Structure prediction request, 156 residues.
Amino acid sequence: MSTSSIRTAITSGSESSSGSTGGTPSTPRQPNPVTSIHIPEHGLILRPHRLYLAHTLEVMGSDHYAPTFAARSSVARLGLFINLSASLGDIGFHGQWTLQLFAAQPLRIYRGMRIGQIMWWCPQGEIALYNGKYQGSTGPCTSRSFQDHNNDSEVA
Prediction:
């Protein structure tokens, strides 16, 4: 098991002066606006009910094992939820992991903070190595789902 720690974070969407998100909703059909936030030495306060993307300090990957990410329970007990829907990595992915951070209450995070661990699983059967749109990622990556869509097609 490896311990993961965060370096920078980004937040998506526009924000009003009251701190609420507003403006145009995010869409999987095009790149979405983001604001890059570098975590200062004194930490960064995450606001509740906002999605932040961060990345691991470590570059990780394997052509032989399937990685999964799990948050440390100590961090979850502070009200920080990590990777709510993307805990399984791809065999063949090599890069910094983008982490989804969601705070239930205001919470100060720090650069290098240990927030989770990577577990490596031995697969069975034939392995098809990942060679997708996030391969070799450095820094937090926003959704690239727009690359999966044909903009000319109608959504049912």
About this structure: The chain has a mean pLDDT of 80. Residues 73-76 form the longest helix (4 residues).
